[in-house]
Amino acid sequence: MSDWYTTFANSGVGSSLVKQLGLPRPAVLRRYEPGQPLLPGPAVVGTAGEGRLGGTLAAVLRDAGVTVPAGNDGGERPAAVLLDATGLTGPGQLAGAHAFLAPAVERLRPTGRVLVLADPPAAADSPAQAAARQALEGLVRSVAKELRAGSTANLVVVPEGAEASAGSAVRFFLSGRSAYVDGQVLTVSAADVPADEDPVRPLQGKVAVVTGAARGIGAAIARVVARDGAHVVAVDVPAAGESLAAVANEVRGTAFQLDVTAPDAAGRLVSHLRGRHGGVDVVVHNAGITRDKLLVNMDAARWDSVMAVNLQAQLDLTRALLDADGLLRPGGRVVAVSSQSGIAGNRGQTNYAASKAGVIGMVRAWAPEFAARGATINAVAPGFIVTEMTARMPFGAREVGARINSLQQGGLPVDVAETIAWLSSPTAAGVNGQVVRVCGQSVLGA
Prior knowledge:
The protein is α/β, with parallel strands linked by helices. Helices cover about 40% and strands about 15% of the residues.
């Protein structure tokens, strides 16, 4: 499916009509295709503060064949603007960030990328240094709201000692994989990051479980991780068996019918993975349901069913994976699907929002144990994603939901899938306990 208004507004007739009516014209986003270059043009790189990540940025851009002009003025318009703002000592140095970003952002081409790298405020030596580091978050979120033509701005926080983990995040945010990730903050941590990775099939040879894979976002996740090389074990309830089999056949994976809330679900999944595949590398907890009602009108059945599918099943399956000796292979990845509603709340969704906020708590709490095993656990929080479910919403509510973000359009299931595939990749080893919002910088929540 696609965002009908974006498609219409960029058609011949539609473009003329929206211009005459003074309506917004959302950009066609630059989305990832295997084999495409990291950027469709040059990148400009600047510093504010000490700037200790110059070598990391230079290596990423050089390896991707991206040219970096000597100056910030004239010549070809940049496809990306990168600011190394590590080493700030106080607010006075923020003037350097402004002096570099203002002219560079003005020249940024459509669907460009602005990426700022910074130190964690919590590790600052003084209140002044903490203030300067925290100020960058407000700067980046505001720049993201000022950009147009499908461009995005994001912030990567890189503690000292985690420099090797920054490269994967930089590549993700510069690439088309991050088309609908905007105005977000990601913190990397020190980890053993593989020296190289197949850029086209980074999941080659991996076994990936995707729950709720029969349709919508789950089917898109299955397609993308399979495209990236993984053998997909597509999981969904028996009632969705026909659709599940179709998805599994399409991606040349295997279908496994399972109600994740059943008492024996965890044991059955563990036995299946051990017996058929000898283990598992990636687990994507995507299965989820909604049973919306205002809190005062919500019965216990609606509350309990949402909690069982959206939260308790993720807890039970993950615990079983950890307890099954050797089942989750070294370098294992667990990615849980949360929601923007779990961060900002949503009227009539107290059960759903609570369950999705619970997913975030689960991920953060388990991150240290996963790190000790050389594995990671993260979450994605989708915003308004165009699916068959959202297509059934009332027209007005649907259009408002799709437009109230900096990119002025609904995301696509593939946008969520691309973020999950990146978090599942070997070089994302330094991303752990994080929540990545795939929401086009929705005006709801942070």
